Amino acid sequence: MVDEVMSGRDPAIRISAMPADTNAYGDIFGGWLMSMMDSAAGLTAARYSHGRAVTVAMDGMQFHQPVKVGDEVSVYTNMVKTGTSSMTIDVEAWRRERHRDTAVKVTQATFTFVAIDENGRPRPIKG
């Protein structure tokens, strides 16, 4: 796993994992992490399409490491494919223990978004 500081990328989202986000064993809920990834991909999709975009699919999520309370979670996005109204975005989540300098990748997934108009119908991307 590459240290995020060395990656040269800025995260779409960076947040600290808090006690309210944990399961009974003290690990962060996978659903919380998925939500952060969806939010980061949504920001990327909205910026690229210059408007509203919605999640239509998420594929390939695998958890490699747990996230603990106090860890800094950084979520990175990469637009990999665009269509007339759709966008495919690779998303990675990394964690850094609060008092350490290095980060490790905890999960990744591919999200698909569709740009929509004010009526909720697909619209062409204005990219």
From TrEMBL:
<dbReference type="GO" id="GO:0009062">
    <property type="term" value="P:fatty acid catabolic process"/>
</dbReference>
<dbReference type="Pfam" id="PF03061">
    <property type="entry name" value="4HBT"/>
</dbReference>
<protein>
    <submittedName>
        <fullName>Acyl-CoA thioesterase</fullName>
    </submittedName>
</protein>
<dbReference type="GO" id="GO:0005829">
    <property type="term" value="C:cytosol"/>
</dbReference>
<dbReference type="InterPro" id="IPR006683">
    <property type="entry name" value="Thioestr_dom"/>
</dbReference>
<keyword id="KW-0378">Hydrolase</keyword>
<dbReference type="InterPro" id="IPR040170">
    <property type="entry name" value="Cytosol_ACT"/>
</dbReference>
<dbReference type="GO" id="GO:0006637">
    <property type="term" value="P:acyl-CoA metabolic process"/>
</dbReference>
<comment type="similarity">
    <text>Belongs to the acyl coenzyme A hydrolase family.</text>
</comment>
<dbReference type="InterPro" id="IPR033120">
    <property type="entry name" value="HOTDOG_ACOT"/>
</dbReference>
<dbReference type="InterPro" id="IPR029069">
    <property type="entry name" value="HotDog_dom_sf"/>
</dbReference>
<dbReference type="GO" id="GO:0052816">
    <property type="term" value="F:long-chain fatty acyl-CoA hydrolase activity"/>
</dbReference>
<feature type="domain" description="HotDog ACOT-type">
    <location>
        <begin position="7"/>
        <end position="119"/>
    </location>
</feature>
